[in-house]
């Protein structure tokens, strides 16, 4: 096995014990990037000499007996919508083609303090608002499994690069599935943490415009990885108490004792979009594997997830509405078409102009749904859902025509319901259908990341190895 194929946990242990060097690992990943990235366009702003210099400094720290972080010397990519000091932060926008970040975002700083070596910036759609990853500034990112299908979005570059073996870990962010959906499309693992567990603080100079309430309350930072153990390692490195984040926790919660066996409620359909047979098959397979692992599996009707998904299209889109002219002016044609169809979808539910009363009532209803879901989950239940009602979409399916565009928003109900509620969710690959990976989603109570990662591990233990896609 070449170094670029090895998991992050193994690399971190090998670097720590000097069995391998960070410089060797980073060089192997850079060689892999050079080999496959031209065809996939997953990473941008790759600076090999800087990465190798950082790796050599990491090796010198090991030799000096310095205290080492959990990711010491391990290559990681960061997303081009997330500030990393001195590196491009274009958001996939031509007008920001030369924009750079003044300081590290808190989650990037946490990765840096953990010892990560940054090797590149991952591609996104314009403004990171599509479930596809192409833009006029950097071009289109392809899925290593199929160039005809989306790698997901908005962390599509992160997922594509992981699946092709460019890095063992990637940072992403999620307000509507932007970590979980790309992970599912590319056959990797992605976790959306509980709001506040990973700091979402950004320096004021890199975010001079105050984000709307939904962005503040719903957007999270989190890791993507090729396996569950690596995702767990990266999440622990990224999690930090940070009161600069208005929703940050004052102290990291300790894992609470859990009743055993854990009950799994299987939620297949909430009446918004009918699941494709391949998606149902993946959920069936994952449910059986969890039962084999000793979980108590039961079918569950849960209409509150449908209600949360509908609230997503009200609260988020109304928060975005005042800034739409600026977004549409700076963005590309794909962004304009996608948002047009997405707002048409929301109008079918809420009317063309919902108004302030609906907005206020929506926020009030959200609180009730959070309480009800936490009561349902308690200490001994998690949920198993699809990641999407469909297998990975064909490229640019969201801008083909109005009906398809609206249907894609509907298909993402498992993605859009969770940010409204603020609960953690992990996407883990469970099946292959027509040559494409199909993921499932596990949802836990707030700060129950370890519980859903344990369940994801049980699925991974029984599944075939999905990545890296060696052919690239």
Tell me the radius of gyration: 21 Å
Number of beta-strand segments: 13
CATH homologous superfamily (4th level) name: Amidase signature (AS) domain
- Secondary structural class: alpha/beta
What is the CATH class designation? Alpha Beta
For the largest sheet, list the strands in their spatial order.
1-3-2-6-8-7-12-13-11-9-10
Please state roughly what percent of the residues sit in beta strands, choosing from under 5%, 5-15%, 15-25%, 25-35%, 35-45% or over 45%. 5-15%
Give the count of helical stretches.
16
Shape: globular
- What CATH architecture label applies? Alpha-Beta Complex
Distance between the termini: 16 Å
CATH topology: Amidase signature (AS) enzymes
| Helix share bin | 40-55%
Domain Amidase: 24-452
Enzyme class: hydrolase
Organism: Actinomadura macrotermitis
Pfam family, one: Amidase
How would you describe this structure to a colleague?
By secondary structure, the protein is an alpha/beta fold. It contains 16 helices and 13 strands. The chain has an eleven-stranded mixed sheet with strand order 1-3-2-6-8-7-12-13-11-9-10, with helices on both faces. A hairpin with a 2-residue loop joins strand 12 and strand 13. Helix 5 runs parallel beside helix 6 (180-186), helix 10 crosses helix 12 and helix 10 (303-320) packs antiparallel against helix 13 (355-377). It is globular, with a radius of gyration of 21 Å. Pfam families: Amidase. This is Acylamidase. It comes from Actinomadura macrotermitis.
